[in-house]
Design a protein that fits this description.
alpha/beta; 6-stranded parallel sheet; two-stranded antiparallel sheet; globular
Amino acid sequence: MADKKRGIVFDVDGTLWDSCAVVADSWNEWLLANAPDAEPVLTGADMRRVMGLTMAQIGDALFAGLPDKRRLEVTEGCCEYEVEYLQDHSGEVYPGLSETLRSLSASYPLFIVSNCQVGYIEVTMKWCGIEDIISDFESFGATGLFKVDNLKLLLERNGLDEAIYIGDTQGDYESARGAGMTFIHAGYGFGKVEDPAVPRIQDIRELPDLINKLWK
């Protein structure tokens, strides 16, 4: 209905930008200086494999050979330094992103929910040039909650009656469904979604037309 308050919520990695290579660089730099016992030299492909997971899950995947306490210390150190490093090193922003989101913001409030650490969404918004058009955001690092719960929290906090979540992985899809949201698959991103009926885009610039069809 026309009087419903609607909003559009975005995932970050694989949806707004690809920061895999620069994040790998930051982690390798921190590991070399602070954690030679961690051993692996990380690549962009390694980071792509774990993007979208919580920080604890990323640590389990990348540093499985370390004791639990040390694994957590190393992962937290890498994540903290990553945000600092990204202040001066940008990921790859998807073409047309800022223009597309600015067009959408004329009709709907825009939001971000990600499984990232505190500070990561802010630096992403800076490099993407969208700081002034994002109404609110939430992260695992800030709340300790899984994505489905952060989506529910954001919807309630902003009084949204209906919302669409744009993400690139099966986990994003399941989180959106769990929060009662429509999901659009960013097919240009890092993951696949098993449900063939899910609406999808192959370029962020396709999003306004698809949303107009879903919310006509």
